Model the fold of this input.
Amino acid sequence: MDELKKFADIHSHIIWGADDGASSPAEAVELLKLDREEGACVVFATPHFGRESGFRWKADRARENFAILKERAAEAVPEVRLFLGTEWYCMNEMAEKIRGGDAFRMNDTDYVLVEFQSMEGVRQETAGQIRDHLLTLKREGFRPILAHPERYRAMQDDWDALRDLADRGILLQVNAYDLDLNLSLKTKDLAQWLADERMISFVGSDMHGLPPKRTPRLKEGIRWLYEHTDEAYADAVAFGNAEKLLGI
Done:
């Protein structure tokens, strides 16, 4: 695959004043330009949300900043379409918070992007805890998308736990960077196995800012996906599933 394939980046941190992502409208626009250079044609803004993860912002303010970003991006990066979501830290009473509009569903659908603790040196959830939280959301009528499962220690130690989640209807979003560039073999091996087993539904950049923060680096991972899986599956992961399920 020599040419860049279009893709939908469903995981990014480009709303300033909300989390540890972009610090200003100018930085957010620069990130979108970089994402476009990588091949993105759709980007979801998904700020972290959850008192447990340290981020709890006002939805009205975040929506206002998103509107400002859309206006600026329309001039600076007209090829990229923007949509709103949230990276919810999976917390107690999460379904109630979603229904209350504390933060955003993915493009106002029933799909919600959900994260767990992935930082080294802190206590992370077990595979069982991750499963129970996600299935509770599913029983409440939501459609969970598990953010970057390849980065959770519990999943790195128990790949079958991810197969079980996929069999139960939990969708998986992998950071494209992890498919080819991540220097952590545990992370990369798990991401590649998920692709080999056709268990990935979406990709994302998880971009947080200009250097030294995490910039969008996806094209190598997208290229790996097309070179190591069949084209129909790669198309679905790169763009088709987002188009079909998230209403873009």
